[in-house]
Amino acid sequence: MYLDFYGLKEPPFNITPNPRYLFYSAKHREALNYLLYGIRERKGFVQITGEVGAGKTTLCRAVLEQLGNNYSTALILNPVLSPEQLVKAIAMEFGLNVKNLDLLETVAEINYFLLRQLEQGRESVLIIDEAQNLTGELLEQVRLLSNLETDDRKLLQIVLMGQPELRDRLNHPSLRQLRQRITVRYHLSPLKQFELNQYVQHRLQVSGAKGPPFFTGPAMWRIFSYSKGIPRLINAVCDKCLLAGFVQQSERITFGLVGRAVRELEGELHA
User: What is the pTM of this model?
Assistant: First the structure.
């Protein structure tokens, strides 16, 4: 609705996890390096946590792009399944036809696939997003998949990405075997206040901005005060700001416009 007014090619503050829009703050860059290190050095398990909307899924998409053609990857976005459904979902993500197989047969197919990948010089990676939703039973099933190995190496690298609750879940005594296998851990923190302007400008530039819109200093302060540096909240309020600026035909996003956007997000504005 506001794209033509601001000269943008596409909405800059969508909340979909598009890796083209990933802003590499110091923490996001560090998290990416931890992920790539854990996968490329075959560390077995990697654990990445962060608050809701911190950018974990976008980071995950960026990692998949950077791994290249020598990696076969399976990405599970909704792990709220039964153990058999989860294993079948993993197999299907690897492109395997396991429709009429039971759990043991599906695991055998995955094992055979992983061995073939190894023979072809390819690595295999499983990434489970929203892993804080995995029950103890499902986490144990994931651990059993990590047992697939040859005499000298693991066949599957596993990345668990989730909210901070994932750390608490993994600290349960019943999961100590899994916890001991996690050798790479990283917690993704929100953006710092000084990074907010860089973040906003990065997304505007990717979306084709050549000049406007212009966010004032007080507007940036109010955006950070509301979002606490969480990218998803920054996106939500900035999108409302651009709409409010368009309605008022203003190229400048001011403190007042941010306030209006925040009240609208919080449901405090009424027709």
Answer: 0.87
Q: What is the rounded CA–CA span in Å between residue 267 and residue 164?
A: 28
Per-residue pLDDT of the chain (271 residues; tens, 9 = 90+): 789 999 999 999 998 888 889 999 999 999 999 999 989 888 878 999 999 989 898 888 888 888 878 899 999 988 888 889 999 999 999 999 998 899 999 999 999 999 999 999 899 999 999 999 998 888 888 888 888 877 777 889 999 999 999 988 888 888 888 888 888 999 999 999 999 999 999 999 999 988 889 999 999 999 999 999 999 999 999 999 999 999 999 999 999 999 999 998 888 654 3
